[in-house]
Write a structure and sequence with these properties.
245 residues, alpha+beta, Signal recognition particle alu RNA binding heterodimer, srp9/1, 2,3-Dihydroxybiphenyl 1,2-Dioxygenase, domain 1, 2 domains, four-stranded mixed beta sheet, 6 helices, 22% helix
Length: 245
Amino acid sequence: MVSLKLEGEKFILLNGAGGPEFTFNPTVSFFVLCETKDEIEQLWQSLTESGKVLMPLDKYPWSEMYGWCADKNKLNWQLMLGKSSDVNGQKIVPSLMFTGDQVGKAEEAINFYTSVFDDSKIQGISRYEEGEGDVVGYIKHAQFNLGDYVMMAMDSSAEHNASFNESISFVVECNTQKEIDYYWNKLTAGGEESMCGWLKDKYGVSWQVTPAVLPKLLADPSKAEKVTKVFMKMRKFDIEELVNA
């Protein structure tokens, strides 16, 4: 496991053995607002090197400069010229694309997520209109907050041959068992449980509901091995059992 920060946002990288079904795909991409043309051009050049261009960096109706690419690791990025203040200063914003069996459910999912997390709100929704290349009324672009964390979503009825999978998950760090129980029960409703705090919600999006104390326990040489053995057997985390391991 490697933990790092990109533009102030925390990312955790894992080596997985899930096979090709866990490969990155366009259903989850990372949206980056760039303040200048030099910035977006330099970032685009770096991300597309040995990668794949999905939408060329160009002028579009919604932006003077925008592009969508997959980097050499197949991770998807959307770059757009704009102001970071439009996303509350959060430079990198995850974007969910609802396709296949989930297409048309973006708005339902946004309403669900904002009902689960406190202090959440929908900042704006733009819908497809006649002649815009998708089903009228489907979400073309939406931005919402889960607490102070900004996310985006869209529908796409195009044939992508891709769906949400475990290659990208969203971590919910909890300080108490009550919080773990709450988020686990809410997010697994209609979805499915997995091991070690992992779950899929009813839309197929993967989450990890984890205790905030876990990294500290794993960093203690006298407890790490025992704690690991205990949590490897868990689905939903039990903080008391981990602490007492």
